[in-house]
Specification:
6-stranded antiparallel sheet; 225 residues; 9 strands; single chain; alpha+beta; Jelly Rolls; 3-stranded antiparallel sheet; 8 helices; Arc Repressor Mutant, subunit A; globular
């Protein structure tokens, strides 16, 4: 599975049933869908646009966890166990959505066991991703954190002709790895010179994922000396 689209993993008949239950919605740029602590009453699949998932501290600091794109499904984990949202979800650009109510999802889970299985698999993938991010923040120097983020995120995207596109700005990268824009710019330029990535406006093309992993290992070793 690429991205976070468990609907595509369903059998054709069940997938059609799930999609028939959805309601279309278009949301403006920078619209907060859920804040940390909100009761979750709907889940979303992105048709076009993007949704930023972040944690906001009381003093206004932001940690960006992920930027969801077309096909991805969001807010399904908290609605599954009737828990409040643990994160803030905000649209980036005008975003078209498919929307299911919590009641819709409950009915689908009861009627189709494979929906429950697909949901559980996706929640486990999100947990693994969160643990990976925590490990990076605690154990890796900044340069290795940035390279590791590119490598890990590229695993979730389908390749294009030139490589794997990550729709991230340098500001986004800094918020993900807890670093300044200047430090991010220095590391991004180094990775570009090594032929591992190609930074463009608003996105990064990953050209050599194994090379990124080697870069991470080398900087991890040098940090341990």
């Amino acid at each position: 599975m690429k991205g976070f689209n468990w609907i595509d993993e369903l059998s054709p008949q069940v997938r059609e049933t799930v999609l028939r239950c959805a309601h279309p919605r278009t949301v403006a740029d920078s619209k907060i869908l859920y804040q940390n602590g909100d009761r979750v009453t709907e889940i979303y699949q992105i048709v076009s646009g993007a949704i930023r998932k972040c944690i906001l501290s009381e003093d206004g600091q932001e940690v960006l966890l992920y930027v969801y794109g077309p096909g991805d499904i969001v807010a399904d984990a908290p609605v599954t166990d009737d828990e409040p949202s643990p994160v803030t979800l905000t649209t980036r650009g005008e975003t078209r959505l498919r929307v299911w109510s919590a009641g819709d999802l409950k009915w689908l889970r009861e009627q189709h066991p494979e929906v429950e299985t697909a949901l559980a698999c996706q929640i486990n993938r999100r947990l693994r991703g969160a643990l990976q991010l925590i490990e990076e923040l605690l154990t890796l120097p900044v340069a290795a954190r940035i390279a590791s983020r590119f490598a890990q995120l590229s695993d979730l995207q389908a390749p294009s002709g030139q490589g794997i596109d990550l729709m991230l700005s340098q500001v986004d990268i800094g918020l993900m790895v807890g670093s300044t824009r200047q430090s991010v710019n220095r590391v991004v330029n180094e990775l570009r010179e090594l032929g591992l990535i190609e930074p463009l406006y608003g996105k990064v093309i990953v050209k050599d994922r194994p090379g990124l992993n080697r870069y991470v290992r080398e900087h991890q070793r040098s940090n341990e000396k």
